[in-house]
Design brief:
The chain is mostly helical and 226 residues long. The protein is built from 10 helices and 3 strands. The protein has a 3-stranded antiparallel β-sheet with strand order 1-3-2. The longest helix has 26 residues, at 50-75. The chain is globular and about 50 Å long.
């Protein structure tokens, strides 16, 4: 693991915080976490050879490096006036960082790395730092396939186009989406409804995206600290 890369990323987020001791402690904690990642035990693959075990560790290390590089690029574009400096000093934010890194390292769906990067950046901003359901959304995104996320984004796009709360954002006749089978679409829709991001319409055959769903899309689609 490139320690310089880790430190640069963390420093980029915290370098405008006057508490130098705070930064040093956070970097120290992050460094410990990454060391633990590399020493992590994998009981489920204990029967595999050491070579395969090391290969899995290398895959996770490369994945974390790509995530950190993405975060580093985005940090450069963040408006420091939109960072919630009080929040990023709290244990809650540190645990969010550790949680996201832990989930991202084992998420084999590489296209989701950009979402994890946006989550890390956005939760350091004033707009998102006060969210009540941070851990819930992180857990859901970690468990979702890319199809779940694309479908939620599509419903949100339709919501913006209609701009009418008296109309359903998405109709059953609009489904399935291109390149998605009806079976996969039904699974994704049912999961998004059960998780509280979409609501089944009380009238007609369709769905509405609610406040939590909108917040989730904004959180993962792009970083708001510009």
């Amino acid at each position: 693991m490139d320690e310089k890369l880790i430190k640069n990323n963390v420093q980029g987020l915290y370098d405008s915080v006057p508490d130098v001791e705070l930064y040093n402690n956070i970097y120290k904690d992050l460094k410990i976490v990454f060391i633990e990642y590399m020493k992590a035990k994998f009981p489920a693959i204990a029967a595999f050879s050491v070579l395969r075990h090391n290969r899995l560790i290398k895959i996770e290390e490369d994945r974390l490096n790509r995530l950190l590089e993405d975060v580093q690029d985005k940090i450069k574009k963040v408006d420091i006036n939109k960072i919630d400096y009080d929040f990023i000093k709290k244990e809650e934010f540190a645990r969010i960082v550790f949680d996201v890194l832990d989930k991202a390292k084992s998420d084999y769906r590489e296209e989701k790395l950009k979402y994890y990067a946006n989550i890390l950046i956005n939760y350091s901003t004033i707009e998102f730092s006060g969210d009540f359901y941070k851990e819930y959304i992180i857990d859901r995104i970690a468990n979702y396939t890319i199809e779940h996320i694309l479908l939620l984004e599509k419903v949100y796009e339709k919501h913006l186009e209609l701009n009418d709360n008296n109309k359903l954002d998405y109709l059953d006749e609009d489904l399935p989406l291109e390149n998605l089978s009806k079976e996969v679409t039904d699974i994704c829709i049912n999961t998004l409804v059960a998780d509280g991001f979409l609501i089944k319409g009380f009238w007609g055959d369709g769905y509405l995206i609610n406040e939590r769903g909108i917040k989730c899309v904004k959180l993962i689609e792009g970083f708001m600290g510009m």
